[in-house]
Amino acid sequence: MAIVKARTGIYNIKPHMIAAQAPATDDAVINISSNESAFGASPQAMRAACEAMSSIERYPEQGPERLAEAVAERFGLDAGSIACGHGSDDLLARLARAYLPPGSELIRSVNGYQKVPNYAFANDAVPVSASDRDFAADVDAILACVTDRTRMVMLANPDNPTGTYTDLADVERLKNGLPSDALLVLDMAYAEYVDRPDYADIIALATTSDNVVMTRTFSKIYGLAGMRLGWMAGPRDIIDVAKRIGLTFPLSSPAIAAGMAALGDRDHERIVFETTLGLRETFADRARAMGLKVYDSQTNFLLIRFPDPTRSAIDAHGYLEAHNILARRQASAAFDDCIRFTIGLEHEMETVAETLETFLES
């Protein structure tokens, strides 16, 4: 009997995260597992989304174009060089589908965003993992992996789950070292949380180069994860290709309205940025005082290593879940000793810190 088969590579796709298990109790759960904004969406964005519900019987004609114009105005870009999609994941998948023929190679940093290999597998391309430096991307190692089959390098910057970032000088060096027919894709989902001056101007690089594309999201600092909304900027020909293979009417009317309003509420963005960074540093200091290794982060989360095998990350994760705290472990063995903690509200992070202290002292 004949069996209909999908692309061979699709069967190599595996989960890149270990699913959080909600405690079987009625107690309040502290969910710091998915890097969502604990501070929610802008009130202006929520009002705009609710108002857009009054016309949801209509398709959102020119919706992505209207959002692209708002993005262009906010960041000083050319609207014609922007595509909007159903989250940045949608846009990354479109780029892989368009620019990774079967047998071609996609290079990534080995401990970077763990979903990247799946974009290659889905298109029967080959993921190539470059070594890193204590979880930070190594540009020289990436360039050493380049072959005549390389068609894409995908780099999350800042990265997830590590929180590390690659500065402008290294990104430029990476771009300049790639062949002209290879695309450099910068997944910059956490860009709004970066406070390092040597990260600046990467947007300009992504919008003035022939082979660099940048993806962004509304899921993080804008607090619109449930809306599934993202955008991408790059050369016009690449943006045109990405639009051609997108869904018909890829964005909902409430998502478009919420995104446009969120871009305009700079006060909310500033408050989320400042509060998140303050809580991130406080929690990092607290964890270091417990003897844990905390990786420097430019995001709204911290990756923390548990060096004592008698107080392992696996045991800590189970202890936290038993106390109604959901943090995140990764499927890769490289992170067996680590837990990723999204920065939550102040009282939540205090509870998490106290629970960890109790675990480590027990």
Describe the structure.
- This protein has a 7-stranded mixed beta sheet, with helices on both faces. A 3-stranded antiparallel beta sheet has the order 12-13-16. The protein has a two-stranded antiparallel sheet with strand order 1-15.
- α2 packs parallel to α9 (253-264) and α10 (266-289) packs parallel to α12 (346-361).
- It has 12 helices and 16 strands.
- It is globular.
- It is an alpha/beta fold and 362 residues long.
- It has helices spanning 43-52, 63-75, 87-99, 116-121, 139-144, 168-177, 202-208, 236-244, 253-264, 266-289, 313-322, 346-361; strands at residues 17-18, 30-31, 82-85, 105-109, 126-130, 132-133, 136-137, 150-156, 183-187, 212-217, 230-233, 293-294, 301-305, 325-326, 329-330, 338-342.
Fraction in beta strands: 15-25%
On the 0-100 scale, what is the average pLDDT?
Answer: 94
N-to-C SSE string, H for helix and E for strand: EEHHEHEHEEEHEHEHEEHHHEEHEEEH
End-to-end distance = 59 Å
* Strands, count: 16
Strand order of the largest sheet: 3-11-10-9-8-4-5
- Proportion of residues in helical segments: 25-40%
How many H/I helices? 12
Radius of gyration: 21 Å
Structural class: alpha/beta
Can you summarize the main beta sheet?
7 strands, mixed
CA-based shape: globular
Uncertain regions spanning at least 5 consecutive residues? none
